[in-house]
Amino acid sequence: MYDASENDLRFAIQHGLDAKMREMVASVYDLSDDTVDAVLSEAAKFSRDVLAPLNHSGDIEGCTWHPDNRVTTPKGFKEAFQQMAEAGWCSMEASEEYGGQAMSKILSAATAEMWHSANLAFSLCHLLSQGQIHALETFGSDDQKQTYLPKLVDGTWTGTMNLTEPHAGTDLGALKSSATRDGDNYRIKGQKIFITYGDHDMAENIVHLVLARVDGAPAGIKGISLFIVPKFMVNADGSLGAQNDVKCVSIEHKLGINGSPTSILQFGENEGAVGYLVGEENQGLQIMFAMMNDARFGVGVQGLSIANRAFHQAKSYAAERVQGIPMERELGDTIQHHPDVMRLLSGMRAEIEAMRGIMVYSAAANDLAKNKAGDSAFWASRSELMIPILKGWLTERSVSIASDGVQVHGGMGFIEETGAAQHYRDARILPIYEGTTAIQANDLIYRKTLRDQGVAVRALVADVSETAKTLSTSDDTISTAAKALVNAAQAADGAIGAILTGGMSMRESGAVSVPLMMMLGTLCGGWMTLKSAQAAQEQKDSGNWDQTFLDAKIAYAHVFATQSLPQVDRYAQTIKAGGTAVEAVSPEMLWA
Amino acid sequence: MYDASENDLRFAIQHGLDAKMREMVASVYDLSDDTVDAVLSEAAKFSRDVLAPLNHSGDIEGCTWHPDNRVTTPKGFKEAFQQMAEAGWCSMEASEEYGGQAMSKILSAATAEMWHSANLAFSLCHLLSQGQIHALETFGSDDQKQTYLPKLVDGTWTGTMNLTEPHAGTDLGALKSSATRDGDNYRIKGQKIFITYGDHDMAENIVHLVLARVDGAPAGIKGISLFIVPKFMVNADGSLGAQNDVKCVSIEHKLGINGSPTSILQFGENEGAVGYLVGEENQGLQIMFAMMNDARFGVGVQGLSIANRAFHQAKSYAAERVQGIPMERELGDTIQHHPDVMRLLSGMRAEIEAMRGIMVYSAAANDLAKNKAGDSAFWASRSELMIPILKGWLTERSVSIASDGVQVHGGMGFIEETGAAQHYRDARILPIYEGTTAIQANDLIYRKTLRDQGVAVRALVADVSETAKTLSTSDDTISTAAKALVNAAQAADGAIGAILTGGMSMRESGAVSVPLMMMLGTLCGGWMTLKSAQAAQEQKDSGNWDQTFLDAKIAYAHVFATQSLPQVDRYAQTIKAGGTAVEAVSPEMLWA
Questions:
Q1: What is the pLDDT of residue B373?
Q2: In sequence order, which residues have a C-beta less than 8 Å from that of residue A23 and are 6 or more positions away?
Q3: Does the CB of B329 have a partner CB in chain A at under 8 Å?
Q4: Which of A463, A496, A485, A482 is nearest to A565 (CA)?
Q5: Nearest CA of chain A to the CA of B89: how many Å?
Q6: Mind listing the pLDDT tens digit for each residue in A383-430?
Q7: Among candidate residues A92, A112, A88, the one with its CA nearest the CA of residue A104
Q8: Disulfide: which of A108, A140, A217, B332 matches A144 by Cβ 3.0-4.6 Å?
Q9: Residue A246 and residue A226: Cα distance in Å, rounded?
């Protein structure tokens, strides 16, 4: 069962942000009720009617690689992508100059949640294209923008990111693909692996962004440049010419997201693929990182999406399946009435609520950072701080939530036809691609905690604490959850203190970096569910929302406070103990 | 890469138990160094040479259902099973009267760990047969014992458990299969689903133990009887006769354990399958539960096994893969030198150490309960208390550990050829079959905590606490881990107090039952890793063990104490908050 969670998104967008923050975003972007309603209801319709029905069939059929180096996607994908493009869903974020709608990231994130929830494998193509649009808007030449952006924005073409090589994944500095100057342009040679939608049949052309090393460039990450390598050459009039010297030599057999082709691309088997330099030589990594932040945000959203899909699947099953008489309930009552099934379902739901809050908040921070509506330096810092938390925590939790979704189904969850297992398989890529959990945690602890001596991260914890303290003194129904959050914020602050001044070595810090990331994710989750509960209380007399819907928001805050928030203390204990115990284990011990 | 962890098992068996407990077991069973060494080294050889090589190929090929209702297992399975039988591995636990070796459960559990780690799908057949042997030894008539046990014990035949029907899984009271008296015997009709190795080609005959309802029996669980239904009828001289009226009408397409057939069996499509009553009419559930405790122990061991397999796979990859220069290390150093990779690997390893300790301890308790070597009533109670903890905690953690195993591989983990993904898929069934996690937790909280007002469970926590306190006052290297365990035991005791006297409703108790189970599992894990570290210290001057091996045991205790043990506090917080927040969520809220 698919549910776009349109009302939950609407509530999070309209009431999840502090009034002041919302006002700042609304001063730059259209966040009127009419616009939000129109976008969400149309997107919900599209994701429900077009994308969701292809999710399970796409997984079963998978993609097909043909000996003439073509890849075909599962039945229905091509038509769905054309519909998506025609409906204008590829153009939400891009600037108007290139056919875009220049909408708030809050709205594009909300629709992305729906796309990925409906069909994760399908929507990956869109995610990559959006990242490419963002990169070219920021770093492309005028000519490049004119040539590529309109077609990417209207969905005639799609984009890819070509980073990984067999020996260069997390460590991009090790990549070997070469670029040789050839007149104004370059000839690219090399093999790229794990290229999502590296070849497919859904669009007329595929624009590859490729990292390669110009002959004579410095070793390591300082010698990497970024190139546009179109699959089909683009003539001066915009029409398509001959195929470039790039071909898909294979696709991977994966655990999940089987509807999406993960390609091995061979560049320059003959004369070299024609590549157009983006920005300056040796600037490639910097540009790619700008694009990657966007993609990391998108993958974090995928975590929310797959968790939500798994939840709705489990919720539907639990509402239909009869098994035993639940304690103090009636014969014939479904399994959702068993206390532990409700523990699982409400726990999943509370974390999804938390994830969605983090997504909307991070998107708003991104909007403010870009548009200088308020203190843009502060919001740039806050937005950057949220990226590893969003990507790391949401995706890690999504794996557990998808696993809980299987568990709710009992034995049926293990049968592929049921569908729950697909979410469990699909979710597993999320803590890996676009920077593993460890990479997010490294970014968080070294670049965003230690470098500024904790200023940004402590400011975040202080904001959480302030909300929690304010709400804890009221004697209404949310004060117990608020008090739990006050304590959690204090524990988190203590753990951060241990990192900053506890005398940990740099390696020991690395060993507690994931616990730090998970701790902050949980803390922010507590913050968001509490804010949502507060908003629900304020809306009680508005007449705009169903009372059960509002009661649920409050209930989820309590579920989060009692089921998830204790994780903050747990991670804080691990952090305070330091990485000493981990560092004391040598590889030899593992083999002894 | 497969590693039978033979030395770790030897150490756990020889030094993991308190001297007094070990002495009691050794007074009944042969636990001499020679016997232990011989069994472990032969089993390691067999699992490494015969079973492990068929694990990945079995997953890829899967089982095949043929239109004439036969099932064939993957290439090599049949021959491997014959070798297993010939080597005497099917007869370890059975009594000598029927050709068994009447060994300690400690040894059969240790070899089971190896079988399941080498090939989970294959070894499931063995697990079910062992449960059947146990049930027939205890409840079968003399004639039934003579007819079936020798062939099951020598591996000529295999056994199955037939419980589940489409509408009766966890709730066996709902089952509808019927048994009609026919002379001395019965005619069985009905459909059973999820029957592991319900049909296959590895043995001459398959003995089904089937739950069914004798015509006129009381409704619900009180009207269930247990029957032996052989696939092929057994003549008076022991030779095989015609096929019984039972056939395999389909097998399931599953997420994992694809090498094992999960069958739908149709009994009595014609004249009714001939069934022989085991015990008395309407005693079926009671007998099945005796068998199920055995199977639950076995599935708990499977949790350890798959976790260990995932660990060795990840460890091997991490020792070969070069990616980036690990902080403060050299160019070319492998990823095992990255702090977070070591956090994952050492964390996996420490929990495996904990699991193995729990397995050996529980097996010893089982031995003592059965053989009246010491206070058998106490050991029966302790043994029964350990079953839900062993089954629940080990299998839940195995899913996370298999997931961590994928994570260590980065992108390669998501590619099926690598093998890590198979463990992640295979592990997912473990918290589901033989009683879901919720069923284990219900058993723990209602039958084994509330019923005796916490006597058994508090005695366990007191034992943990006593070990921890004793070791915390020394000023050697393990006292910090011991102190953490003292605090954890105290937190656990407080949480148990909240369950016993905190005024929780019965439904609220249900909502905190899984946290209770996970809390006690973690606590016992801390106990076992600490005891292992203590033994390692004592062995330092013995000359019997490699120093790095002993250092590793001590190091894992610290890793467990800092990475896993903080979970005790976390679960205690959730328990103390009670199930109120979960109970406040109504199904309507989930749909609002």
A1: 66
A2: none
A3: no
A4: A485
A5: 27
A6: 999 999 999 999 999 999 999 999 999 999 999 999 999 999 999 999
A7: A92
A8: A140
A9: 16
